[in-house]
Amino acid sequence: MFALVNGTIFTMSKMGIIKEGIVLVNEGKIVGVGRKIKIPDEAEKIDVQGKIVFPGMIDAHNHIGGHAEAEDPPFDNNEWTSPVTPHVRMIDGVNPLDEGFQTAAKAGVTTIFCTPGSANVISGTAAVLKTVGKTISDMILLDPAAMKMAFGRKFPRPSSDIPYPATRMGTAAILRNTLIKTINYLKKKRKAEENPEKEPPEPNIGFEYLALVLQRKIPAHVHVSRADDIMTFARIADEFGFNWCIAHGFEAHVVAEELAKRKVPVVLGPIIYPNFHPDIDWSPEIAVILHKAGVKIALQSDGPAVFPTQHLPLLAAAVVRAGMDEWEALKAITINAAEIIGVDHRVGSIEVGKDADLVIFSDHPLKWRSKVEKVFINGKEIENLENRK
């Protein structure tokens, strides 16, 4: 048990900012937050006067462990053998000892949404991971967290023999056709359960995972940028009735009202990487437009190869400079991200009952001189965790 005392607490909750506050932690959980918290005699007191106590930051779209920074394609997070691979799981392709996890953790990024790449129309299931652990089981916060899908621009395929769609029409048709096959699979399975004389369908793990999407148990997390692609996906989601969120979304502001009407969130970015696709608008102002339209946003690094995960606060600073309210920008790397990826009951803010994922900054998190001085994940200080080889 320990207590962080005398710090300025950015709770990222309705409690707002608490000056000279106390955060009490016991057995990896936050058990007290406020100015008048009784600290048990046995609790270690850590004086953080003059410091900022911040929730562990959350990168809502990331590939650490499945895509090494210096690696050439094909990456281990892209299963290139088919345009439809709902049966693959990101946790089966993650190396928990990848140094990217340690780098992220020491920078205060304590949770990531780790997802397959965008090579496929349907790419497989994503997971939410903590950034410490010797095995993937130690790190899982939520799995499956979503089904990754991808519309629009694709990377070149390793072989022309693989039957990938040649057009946007073909991409949409493949998704629709696969969802219809899933529905037929579920109908046949249900009939067999209701009538033992009916022959059940051959087990299909891909259809089982897609069933979670159609049953609204997990959302689709769709890589999409162009406004026309976004609306094509919106039509399909309306048709089949599933929940979804946008990853990247560089033209999402063009259809912001449509997204707000459907309550579709956007995991925007990365907004600092202008040469990756020169034809795409990477402007931080997109975040401001989406927020004003009522679209919930989170920010992403798409790390480790596209933008360094450890510099996630720079993305929040960029949208503040573009006109975003500072508190709202900080929410985009904390509580908004947690809500969008489905783990806000555990992380994303400093509240009683949540995991003790805490970052001590020397100054305001968005000041460029501010340093991360301490990081706690599940109540344990990073320096004391032996999660490397």
Question: In summary, what is this structure?
Answer:
This protein has 389 residues and is an alpha/beta fold. Helix content is 26%, strand content 24%. It has 2 domains: 1-55 and 348-389, Roll (Urease, subunit C, domain 1); 57-347, Metal-dependent hydrolases (TIM Barrel, Alpha-Beta Barrel), CATH 3.20.20.
List its traits.
single chain, about 400 residues, alpha/beta, Urease, subunit C, domain 1, TIM Barrel, 2 domains, 8-stranded mixed sheet, 10 helices, 16 strands, disordered C terminus
* Helix-strand topology string: EEEEEEHEEHEHHEHEHEHEHHHEEE
What's the story with the biggest beta sheet?
Answer: 8 strands, mixed
How would you sum up the global shape? Answer: globular
The CATH homologous superfamily of the largest domain is called Metal-dependent hydrolases
* Helix-and-strand structural type: alpha/beta
CATH A-level architecture of the largest domain = Alpha-Beta Barrel
Describe, in plain words, how this protein is organized in 3D.
By secondary structure, the protein is of the alpha/beta class. The protein folds into 2 domains: 97 residues, Roll (Urease, subunit C, domain 1), CATH 2.30.40; 291 residues, TIM Barrel (Alpha-Beta Barrel), CATH 3.20.20. Helices cover 26% and strands 24% of the residues. The chain contains 10 helices and 16 strands. Strands 1, 2, 3, 4, 5, 14, 15 and 16 form an 8-stranded mixed beta sheet that branches. Helix 3 packs across helix 4 and helix 3 runs parallel beside helix 5. The protein is globular and about 65 Å long. The protein starts with a strand and ends in an 8-residue tail after the last strand. The C terminus is likely disordered.
